[in-house]
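Following up on my earlier message about zinc ion. Here are the inputs again, as you asked, copied directly from the submission form:
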Amino acid sequence: MFVEKDFVKFLDNNSNILVDAPHSQPPEREFYTDEIAEKVATENGFNCIVSKISRTEADLNRSINYNLPYQQEARTEYIEVIKKLYENRKHKDKPYLHLTVHGMRDGYGADIEIGTVFDRVCSPQVRKQFVKAFRESLISEGLNPIIKVNNRYRFYGHPSLSELKIDDNYNIIQIEFSKNLRQTYRGEIINALTKTLKLI
Ligand SMILES: [Zn+2]
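Thanks, got it. Here's what our run produced:
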């Protein structure tokens, strides 16, 4: 069951995997990112955080001093929840993965962009393992999208993610899905993420 806070709701399954959707609320919502994060998490017993506030009022994927009306309170709450979920994880000896789900527009030459801020917020090993397994899982779902990783001109992961990296065991991957994929192939994406994250 989701726990409701002021700016986020979260699910604590004592898991080593967290799937979140920080830009899920209107206006300027990234459509279906909440549905993707919630389904992947609830169906597999992962942790989950979904925003309850629009990025026009507080952007959870920006630093605490970003100039928006509720930025300070919302970002503080988000970080508190992130820490609590990490503390409560079952397997302290295994890598922890925080997958943050976003949506981008169509027509930029990629269907999926994966960013780890050039591996500053994720170990290269976890990043490689994720990308390989995700590519294979998408193919097994009948999709063959163009995937770009740490594309320096686009979505390489927001630098503020480094503020969420608690220690060396904490890995963050930002993933951007095109509108077309989110709208038309949501089920396939959810299945492919499920297959991939079970392997991590
Ligand atoms: Zn976003």
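One observation from looking it over: The radius of gyration is 15 Å. Hope that helps, and feel free to reply on this thread.
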